Amino acid sequence: MRVMDTIPEIGSEPLDRMTKGCEASNILRTAIDFDLFDLLEESKTAEQVSSETGTVASFTEKFLNALCTIDLLSKRDGKYANTKLASTFLVKKSPFYQGNMIRLFKNSSLNWSRLGSAMKGDLPDETGERPERVFDSGFILAMAEGSMRGSLHQTVKEVSALPEFKRARTLLDLGGGHGLYAIAFAETNPELDATVFDLPPVTEVTQEFIGRYGMDERVSVIGGDFAMDEIGQGYDIVFASDVFYRKPDALSGIFEKIHGALNDGGSIMLKHWVLNDDRTAPPTSVLFDLMLSLRGGNWHHIYTEVEYIELLKGARFSDIRVLDVSSQVSPSVVIVGNKEA
Prior knowledge:
Elements: H1 13-33, H2 36-39, E1 44-45, H3 46-53, H4 57-69, E2 73-76, E3 79-82, H5 84-89, H6 99-112, H7 115-119, H8 137-160, H9 163-166, E4 170-174, H10 180-188, E5 193-198, H11 200-212, E6 219-223, E7 235-241, H12 248-261, E8 262-273, H13 283-293, H14 305-314, E9 318-324, E10 332-338
Parallel strand pairs: 4-5, 4-7, 5-6, 7-8
Antiparallel strand pairs: 1-3, 2-3, 8-10, 9-10
């Protein structure tokens, strides 16, 4: 066999993109850490950027050129400025800012670094119980930023068309974190009062969002752990977004609690990422399922639509429907079930 006789039948570009993906992510995170995108809403030279950030001039120019090649900056006549992508998602004053979400991805890399050890059974917690976690304000802000990429808007659009939503007067956003879903639902239905239920430290951040959008009279908060505490009574809708990734034995009791908290004819609405029936797609959900396992324990579970539906049926919900609110970055559905009147 000669060297020139051995040619691959396919190109290696997909592997190249996989192995080099860390380069762009490290460049992006470093730019955020230096607040470069806030600085470059107005065009500046590399020397000006270096002076304002306290960085080495020669290295700064190469760094700015690298940001150009990943389409976050443009360069004209020796000056650098944000592209529309950067101005939209990477400038702090933008309503679509994603800096906290990007920093959260950096933290998740710690989980991925455990992959080899996890394959051999070496995990941080193998007790079988859900590990205790402290949700800091950065995490909640990241979740808020993620919702503003379009997932919230599509969800509210689909839910607001339902007759159950149009006639609702009380809504509980269970594990609602930042509260943006509750705020948007109340904005959409002027006759709706909403309540956000989450851990007490989280609701402090929730209050800030409620005040920012001027919804103090329409959206309230309750602090507690919905897995252990009572969640109240008399709701027309209990909505939950991306909080029910627990094992079925934990969820069945929570769904029964929700059933009891709803008025007759009320609705449960679950907005969550899902897997297909053989658990191999969509890619974002499959990778999320694996990443959660790297945290240790066995409390986590990413569900299929069928699995969620069966759990709701087991909690005595009927007229169950699935609304597609998915996008490339959020493979979500909203599953709706009603409590019989």
